[in-house]
Design a protein that fits this description.
Blueprint: H1 5-12, E1 31-34, H2 47-55, H3 59-68, H4 85-96, E2 103-107, H5 115-127, E3 131-135, H6 139-145, E4 148-153, E5 156-161, H7 164-188, H8 193-209, H9 212-245, H10 250-278
Parallel strand pairs: 1-2, 2-3
Antiparallel strand pairs: 4-5
Helix pairs in contact: 2-3, 4-5, 7-8, 9-10
């Protein structure tokens, strides 16, 4: 926290000016930026009117666009001020996204979202075919979508190709390799025995943490969890599609809602276990 992640995004999007150097955006780059705190100029308006006036389109076109982002039926008449954080993020993306956008920039996109809103956000990211830059502490999200990581620490950026799990393993190995160099430096500076004992203990702890057999077991468990998460998410999507098709069949709709609730609970459990293992 406080290392400049959000500032970096603001520099890229020209919301702030660098003290030195420059930011160059490609001539064919069309981006949208979704900040942590999503606001609207006229929160008293309904969802439908917000989209109509902002994009200057007809009511029918606005409804069709909103339906893609899962705002349907009477929901489109809700006031923007009454929306949850996740719903506001979804509405903002509905307004901003179009076919010409090829760079999506997100600042903590899943922060404080409920499970449903998180799912919509992940679906939107998953369907996006352009380049994605996002700031996040969400290990699951990073692992799912990132194929390149910038770790910001102490005013420096570590550029790593791979997902979060790959980066974590690399980081642990790097820490173990760096520790002997620290010990050698301490010897040359004639530090006290107490200092040596402390550093030797740290080295021992790092080595004990790196257990290849345990790492393989953890990796296998992670793969199983990710497979389960994928299957559960697919089941939820199938249920939601069926719910749309049988909206007038109240009894079937109730059954589907109960089924979705049970699967969502299993999905939450998998998410929790995944995060616990990653931690």
């Amino acid at each position: 926290n406080g290392c400049g992640k959000t500032t970096l995004l603001k520099l890229i999007t020209a919301e702030e000016t660098p003290d030195s150097g420059f930011v160059r955006i490609g001539v064919s780059t069309n981006y949208v930026f979704l900040p942590q705190l999503v606001t609207f100029d006229e929160p008293e308006l309904s969802i439908l009117d917000t989209v109509r006036y902002r994009l200057e389109i007809s009511e029918e076109m606005a409804r069709n666009r909103l339906a893609v982002w899962h705002f349907k039926g009477e929901e489109v008449f809700k006031h923007v001020k009454d929306l949850s954080g996740g719903e506001k993020s979804r509405l903002k993306l509905c307004i901003l996204m179009d076919n010409d956008i090829n760079l999506l920039i997100l600042d903590e996109p899943t922060n404080h979202l409920d499970i449903a809103s998180r799912q919509w956000m992940e679906d939107a990211i998953d369907k996006f075919e352009g380049t994605l830059i996002f700031v996040s502490h969400d290990r699951y999200l990073i692992n799912k979508f990132a194929n390149r990581i910038w770790d910001m620490d102490g005013g420096k950026i570590t550029d790593f190709t791979g997902n979060y799990s790959d980066y974590k393993k690399w980081k642990m190995k790097t820490d173990i390799l760096v520790m002997p160099q620290v010990i050698g430096k301490v010897i040359s500076n004639k530090k006290t025995n107490d200092d040596m004992k402390t550093i030797s203990k740290n080295l021992s702890n790092n080595r004990s943490r790196w257990n290849p057999k345990k790492e393989r077991q953890i990796a296998a468990k992670m793969r199983d969890l990710e497979k389960d998460i994928g299957l559960l998410e697919e089941k939820i999507r199938d249920i939601e599609n069926e719910m749309e098709e049988c909206a007038s069949d109240y009894k079937r709709l109730q059954d589907l809602m109960e089924e979705k609730k049970e699967i969502t609970m299993k999905l939450d459990s998998c998410y929790m276990e995944w995060v616990e293992i990653e931690g």
